[in-house]
Amino acid sequence: MHDFKFKNKKLYCENIDVEYLARRFGTPLYVYSYSTLINHYLKLKDAFKSINPLICYSVKANSNMAIIESLINKGAGLDVVSGGELFRALKAGCPANRIVYASVGKTDNEIKEALNAGILFFNVESLPELENINRIARKLDKAARVAIRINPDVEAKTHKFITTGKITNKFGIDLNSAYNILLMRSKFSNIDISGLHIHIGSQITNGEPFVAAITKIIKFIGQLKKKGIGLEYLNIGGGLGIVYDKETPQTAMKFAKKALPLLKATGLKIIMEPGRFIVGNAGIMVTKVLYVKPTPKKKFIIVDAGMNDLIRPALYGAYHQILPLSLVSGRREKVDVVGPICESGDFFAKDRIMPKVSEGDYIAVMSAGAYGFTMASNYNSRRRACEILVSGTDVSVIRDRETYGDLIRNEKY
Ligand SMILES: *Cc1c(COP(=O)(O)O)cnc(C)c1O
Fold first, then answer.
1. Is 274 a pocket residue for ligand 1 (Cβ < 6 Å)?
2. How many angstroms is it from 100 CA to the middle of ligand 1?
3. Integer Cα distance of 116 and 140 in angstroms
4. What are the chain's domains?
5. 369 lines ligand 1 (CB under 6 A)
6. Cα–Cα distance, 60 to 199 (Å, whole number)
7. What is the number of alpha carbons within 13 Å of residue 302 lying toward its C-beta?
């Protein structure tokens, strides 16, 4: 499933001893496995090869240029959610006709940039946005291709902060309103509505919510057909879950088995937008134990990474497996693994029973490839971490650790 494995009780990323990387580049350190990254992309591509979907990797999961470039080179398209991500996508060499753009709050400038670049389409999330894209496209004398993002009102059975397909969420357009928009599509002189889009949430571990959403969409496509409205694309979004703890997410093959018959029945060209599924297990965050602090009620393992480096536990109560890079002692104990930041939310694990570690040991926070570095901040004036990409025995620094100078670069005083 991933290429982080113990050999002689030492954690390796492919053929490289991770502790060697920690000593050479310092900590906190993000380490990614190229083969894991590409394998996950290919797993999905293979599972769906009978319909040859365009797989648009979701840039926000991990937007490092080397990561997105690696995927583009394997034929992936990209799903972007801001002008900044569009800039990265184009700079990394993604053909514009493989870029789709979703966001409830696209600015005029972002819309202009995407129209000028000639992206495949916008995933449109409201009527006012559609009107605005039409206005800007008319000014630029362009035809804007769009897909209507439908909010199918299904339960994704995931954390409430990462559910996006319930009618109380801010995302997408309800079926009734979408129907009305499609009926009056000729009013939008510079818009070509070429598809529908859904994205119902993230870290979804079984196929049911997807099947429920796609089934609703198929019915909707049938209604549109009756009105003589034809479409070209169906974008089924991302959201495929991965293993962090004891989850048993469906494999790409199992997902394909459930979804393929439905997708084939649409007769449309299919687009997918996986983020976490591709990059989540392809990265770890390595940190060093600074102090072991017993208190009357707890034992705290204080490490040199903080919530500014990886915020998922603080933000979602997310679980990440934590492993020492060297499995020397067989003893286990119950600890809290915490960072140096001045917040009680600054933790990676609470009351976790894990192998005993001591000052100076290195530990790995596993499955940190997605929504790890991309959510990092400079809180507490901490420099963002260094990122390393390993391929076989090759080691590349794909982002230097920030300097103190970087912290104040844009400030005037
Ligand atoms: C975040 C996002 C994705 C990717 O979600 P994952 O759970 O990482 O697969 C796909 N599409 C859209 C529109 C998104 O906002």
1. yes
2. 12
3. 8
4. 4-32+280-402 (2.40.37.10), 34-279 (3.20.20.10)
5. no
6. 14
7. 11
| Matching residue, tokens 């963002």 | 384
Q: Do the Cβ atoms of 43 and 311 come closer than 8 Å?
A: no
Q: How confident is the model at residue 376 (pLDDT cuts 50, 70, 90)?
A: very high
Q: Is pLDDT at 330 greater than 90 in this prediction?
A: no
Does the beta carbon of 237 lie inside 6 Å of ligand 1? Answer: yes
- Contact indicator for 123, 133 with CB cutoff of 8 Å: no
pLDDT tens digits for range 92-126? 999 999 999 999 999 999 999 999 999 999 999 99
Q: Does ligand 1 have an atom closer than 6 angstroms to the CB of 125?
A: no
**174 Cα to the center of ligand 1, angstroms:** 19
Tokens of 114: 């995407």
Measured distance CA(413)–CA(402) in Å, rounded: 21
Lowest mean pLDDT among 118-122, 138-142, 175-179, 328-332: 328-332
pLDDT tens by residue, 246-294 = 888 889 999 999 999 999 999 999 999 999 999 999 999 999 999 999 9
Selecting among 13, 56, 94, 342, the annotated active-site residue is 342
Q: Which of 37, 55, 79, 85 to mutate to test the pocket of ligand 1 (most atoms within 8 A of CB)?
A: 79
Atom of ligand 1 nearest to the CA of 149: 13
Place of tokens 């002189």: 189
Q: CB neighbours of 174 closer than 8 A, spacing ≥ 6?
A: 150, 151, 153, 167
Cα 114 to chain centroid, rounded: 21
Any ligand 1 atom below 6 A from CB of 79: yes
Question: Is 94 in the active site?
Answer: no
